[in-house]
Specification:
The protein is an alpha+beta fold. The protein has helices at about 20-35, 50, 75, 85-95, 100-105, 110-115, 120-125, 130-135, 140-150; strands at about 160-165, 170, 175-180, 185, 190, 195-200. The strands form 3 sheets. Strands 1-2 form a two-stranded antiparallel ribbon. Strands 3-4 form a two-stranded antiparallel ribbon. The termini are far apart. The relative contact order is 0.10.
């Protein structure tokens, strides 16, 4: 049987990627620069900053006129500085509120109870006691509640985060939330940018397209 001398049975087919859409290009820009190119207000959910639970700033295309509700998370985190929502919390917020005004309708105490009553809260957060909360006045509860939110549902949390997907406290070193697939994943799973789906195996190529790039897998 005759074979072309330039081909091999073991040769892997090259991955062919289609040209990116305008939306994908805007996403790429956001991943690289952490800002959007929107020209007006960012009042819609198409804004890349909004989609990733991030507030807009003066470097964004919308400038100082942004209506992005993620610019107004002091209701949960306090007003000392700007905090971004953890991706899992951001996804939950998108289901609960349409704009900044609607954030005020979310019951913070109910949210706090949900977190503190999850099955592994006591194990993971030994410094917080549900029983002690009963003896605190309303001002103390607000201050401590916002501290709890900063530690578990802001993107500034260092080691742990509360997963709304799983209703449990997760270790950031072994779990993460994929904003595209909209669920929390094991650390061995990564998001294939070209397939736009998660795939198993941190050091393995994508099981669908064979891509090994993983260029944006750590951006979620």
């Amino acid at each position: 049987m005759w074979f072309d001398e330039d081909t091999s049975e073991d040769e892997e087919p090259k991955i062919k990627h289609t040209e990116k859409s305008e939306i994908e290009k805007e996403e790429d820009f956001y991943y690289t620069n952490k800002r959007c190119l929107c020209e007006e207000g960012c009042s819609t959910r198409s804004c890349p900053c909004f989609k990733h639970g991030s507030g807009c700033d003066s470097s964004c295309g919308c400038g100082e006129d942004s209506e992005n509700m993620f610019n107004h998370l002091e209701y949960f985190f306090g007003g000392d500085k700007k905090y971004a929502a953890h991706p899992c919390f951001a996804q939950w917020l998108m289901k609960k509120a349409k704009d900044a005004d609607a954030l005020q309708t979310i019951d913070r105490d109910k949210l706090r109870r949900r977190i503190m009553k999850c099955h592994n809260f006591k194990e993971q957060c030994e410094d917080y006691s549900y029983e002690e909360w009963k003896n605190k006045d309303e001002d103390e509860k607000l201050i401590d509640g916002q501290e709890l939110f900063r530690n578990l549902i802001s993107d500034d949390s260092e080691y742990l985060y509360y997963s709304f997907c799983r209703n449990e406290v997760c270790d950031k070193g072994s779990d993460w939330h994929c904003a595209e697939c909209r669920r929390c994943m094991d650390w061995r799973v990564w998001h294939c940018y070209y397939c736009n789906k998660c795939t198993y195996g941190a050091s393995l190529p994508c099981e669908r397209c064979g891509d090994v790039d993983g260029e944006f897998s750590d951006c979620y």
